[in-house]
Design goal:
The chain has 417 residues and is mainly α. The protein is 76% helix and 0% strand. It is built from 18 helices and no strands. Helix 6 packs antiparallel against helix 7. The termini are far apart.
Amino acid sequence: MSTIILIIGLMIFVSHFLAILFRRTNIPDVLVLMLIGLVAGPLMGWVSAADFGKVGPVIATIALVVILFESGTSLRLYVMGKAMSTTGKLTFGCFIATGVIVTTVAMLVLGMPMLSALLLGVILAGTSSAVVIPMVESLRLQEGAATTLVLESALTDVLCIVGVFALLQLVTSGSVEPGKLIGSVLSALIFAAVIGILGGIGWLLILGKVRDFPNTISATIAYAFLIYGLSEFLGFSGAIAAMTLGLTLTNFDSRWLKRFRGLEHRIEALTPMDITFFREAVFLLKTYFFIYLGISIQFSEPVLLLVALAMMVLVFLTRIALARFAFAGESFSLRDSAIASMLAPKGLAAAVLASLPLQYGVAEGALIRDTAYMVVLVSISLCAVLIMSFSARPVQALYGVMLGKPKPADVVAREQS
């Protein structure tokens, strides 16, 4: 027991060092943490995901809720309004393109039947909120680009979950109703957002009274758990609800909330100490999340590494073209557009969804699971390598050509002088 406690303490200190390393060298801390889990788990066998029992997935979900909630507190409505067009282009374009690429490779290379390959394609079509959000914050992107990437990761989580369960329904019952599928997606998004907004307004009205009790700085995060759990219990997206809750708590004075301003004397805003506490909670939970993710990855056949690499190379190349289209405006810099094209990592959500086909009796369930695990590892690794390489001028020049964003003449002249 003492050894475990010692290791936990050391990992927290190591995480602080890795965060500083990320800012100075562009080596993502999430990759290093995942590699630590990979070495401790699948490679050396010191620990396995089974050792955590039911506690592992629960804490991973808690980490996801806190990350989404804290990211919501950093979003601004006026920026979201401007970013919706870009978000739509990038989200649906990348989701469809990734799904098609993964499905095609799975059919041609792995020999999967179409339905199984499509399941794998939908599982891996999104981007991971738990990976994207910490990296966006560490990379300090322009607000519009950061908002687009955060929203994309949250929306694609919903699309992946609904899509996978629809395909599993097709496997078990032999049919799926398109109308109900579209309705389930819209209801998961809209009603979850409503729950988050109403929950946020309600919390703002009682927060002042809550502060009268001792030791309540963590009460807001506990409330975020309640909103997430309620939304999931009702069949909606807990991720969207948690993010919308955070958004509401820091945007209560915006135009569309002015109808509630008659109650402004009763509203207690979040304090800087609250925001600092949320960020510290994200930091601690992120450390556990990525180590656990590394431990959870499973290796079966070495050929899957090459298949996953081929899938993700095609995905990143396609994402460059989509980023060029979505981030075409002058308001997006070359760096923002390039980073957006690099942030296509898969995470724990994909790993969890990948285990479902086997549980539902899909013949290729084990192959789907093992391939998805490998893609999670490869996607995060490629993402990290691309981000690290962008500091090199030749790489910047290459991305400038591919994204149609060459450096301004004055910048080129300054570099040549």
